[in-house]
Design a protein that fits this description.
With 120 residues, the chain is of the alpha+beta class. It has one domain (10-119). The chain contains two helices and five strands. The chain has helices spanning 67-71, 106-119, and strands spanning 17-27, 41-47, 54-62, 74-76, 89-93. A five-stranded mixed β-sheet has the order 3-2-1-5-4.
């Protein structure tokens, strides 16, 4: 750290830092699936190791996938301090320990599957 300021300088920051997951959320609906059920995608809120602000990162993926693998990935600081450090790249960590809310479309999916099974 610089002696005259509490803010880190670019020399103080590693090229690839870790951003701890604060919370996980579902966003959407984003269209529907083959059964006509609304689709939701996962997002994650992290504390940026560079600017110390919270950043949201959507994934574009969700239900039925390996959630910790989706969320544990490389992301970039897009905040107003993004150019204050060399890369702004960080690894999202802690998704495997995060409380993941239940899928908001689960009940609709179950009803649609029952209807489809009844039709066959």
């Amino acid at each position: 750290m610089s002696r005259h300021t509490s803010a880190p300088t670019w020399e103080d920051i590693p090229l690839l830092a870790e951003a701890e997951t604060i919370r996980v959320y579902w966003s959407g609906p984003h269209g529907t699936d083959e059964l006509g059920v609304p689709r939701y995608t996962l997002g994650v809120v992290v504390r940026c190791p560079f600017c110390r602000r919270e950043h949201n990162h959507g994934t574009g993926r969700g239900y039925g996938e390996d959630i910790p693998a989706i969320l544990s990935r490389v992301a970039h600081c897009a905040g107003r301090y993004a150019d204050a450090h060399p890369t702004g790249t960080y690894w999202i960590t802690g998704a495997d320990r995060a409380d993941i809310p239940s899928y908001p479309g689960e009940r609709a999916r179950q009803i649609a599957q029952r209807r489809q099974e009844a039709d066959t």
